[in-house]
């Protein structure tokens, strides 16, 4: 899985960068920034592994992607004030990560002999968006993925595509179809400003309480 | 467990509705709203299963309750502005869910041969209130269960009742005693406006910092 | 491990007190206050156990430290308005807890035959700071450990020291070296007001969004 591995690294760097930038914008210190970068990059995979009983999760056994995250965070920490210009590159890299992580999450499920559509899609989704959710919880924000643009839906559609593609193609090809489906939907949603529907409240926003 | 299954479904619907309503009130989009509904409905059970090593958690293997949650969320999404009138029904259904989930959580613990009071009560409690805690964390609110009314305490008392009831009755009967204990305490606390004590600060609210 | 056990109890009390005080300052009720105390005291250990597949986590099987946490929370609840004077004692106890929990977390990893530096340090760190992170997430604060002073770094340095000390000394001695390293770094950072670096933004604090 040569090319997919490259995508995974690009995605890890992009996720780590987004974690580090959120950390810095929330006035976290060097440790907080690095921790948030690691959490964003590997948090989804850790959650996925716990769900299916892989203990310790891969990220702890093989800290390869944690090291990538730490280096990425350090670079962001040093060059923070110059990174705004790279916003486009970061968004594209993030979309690459979303696609690669989704494909990898689905494959982990399949390699562990799970056959249900629901669990395969769930594990693809968690791997893709779990780290970002944790990032936002730690940064005291409502998770981005719950409020804006087509993000999780790109991951879900990519995962469903993978399941169907495997009925026609080999697993290797299906992974790339999943990757490109997720990636393209995500990039299109950014370029075209696509959003999922929201409810418009009739009255002033009345907060629901139990 | 025929009737308890009905209670479980009612509870799932009520929990999913509360998740969806919180999501919408926080301006989440369709995905966020559905995700929060699922989290509220099955999150406690997922956490309970992870605690005792059931991987993958039941909710992922059998997405039955997730589907119920999704349908509930969609209905809330469409009819949001008419649901305020149903506040009473939602509160009663939520109390039914709290009772059913508590009884189920305790039974899962007992069926896995745990005998300690602490772990049985903990698993009943987590199943009952865990989803709501996750809902509030994702919605950027201090968990409701930590601040208002008799909610967790109803679940704890129900769970303790179950343990003692099993010494006299069969497991089936004990489950219903647990259910009704939790349900009645919860409903009474709403009707009578009962709250747990809080500390009144002498000075102005001084925020504690380490 | 006689003395370390004493340190563990002191640390549990200190962590529970910090959880209870944060809970009260956030206007949580008695249940919320106790729950936050328990979470702060045992949450890190629970997460550590889940990571390495110890299910159910020790804290659920043996509720010894939960009981200590509950008693500590009750005392805080009753004497809250008199505790501000004890701030110094609480800080020192907290540092004792950080040291003891770090050493214990590393030893759990080693006793489960993990040999990698990364996972040993991670488990020491999670045991030391995980409860405090959960406390702050539930209290709707950006985790303290991400923003202020030398806290996590003390734990990390202590854990690294333990790994190297074990190459020279027995495990018992190495645990104490880890404990004192963590403790002293933490106390020095409080006394000297040491902080990790943060990024100073050139422009006004511009919030990063994906």
Automatic annotation (TrEMBL), chains A, B, C:
It holds the Pfam family Gly_transporter. The chain crosses the membrane at residues 6-24, 31-54, 60-80, 92-110, 116-138, 150-168, 174-194. It is found in: Cell membrane. One of its GO terms (cellular component) is plasma membrane. Residues 6-80, 92-165 form the Glycine transporter domain. The keyword Membrane applies. It comes from the Bacteria. Belongs to the UPF0126 family. This is Glycine transporter domain-containing protein. It comes from Clostridium liquoris.
């Amino acid at each position: 899985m040569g090319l997919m591995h490259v995508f995974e690294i690009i995605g890890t760097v992009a996720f780590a960068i987004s974690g580090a930038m959120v950390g810095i914008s929330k006035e976290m210190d060097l440790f907080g920034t690095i921790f948030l970068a690691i959490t964003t990059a590997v948090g989804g995979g850790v959650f996925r592994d716990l769900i299916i009983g892989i203990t310790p999760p891969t990220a702890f056994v093989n800290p390869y992607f944690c090291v990538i995250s730490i280096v990425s965070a350090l670079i962001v920490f040093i060059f923070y004030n110059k990174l705004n210009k790279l916003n486009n590159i970061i968004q594209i890299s993030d979309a690459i990560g979303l696609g690669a992580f989704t494909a990898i999450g689905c494959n982990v499920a399949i390699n562990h002999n799970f056959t249900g559509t629901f669990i395969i899609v769930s594990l693809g989704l968690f791997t893709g968006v779990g780290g970002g959710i944790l990032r936002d919880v730690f940064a005291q924000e409502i998770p981005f993925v719950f409020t804006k643009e087509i993000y999780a839906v790109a991951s879900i559609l990519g995962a469903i595509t993978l399941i169907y593609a495997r009925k026609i193609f080999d697993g290797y090809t299906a992974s790339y179809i999943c990757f490109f489906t997720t990636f393209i939907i995500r990039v299109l949603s950014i370029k075209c400003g696509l959003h999922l529907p929201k409810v418009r409240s009739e009255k002033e926003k009345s907060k629901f309480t139990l």
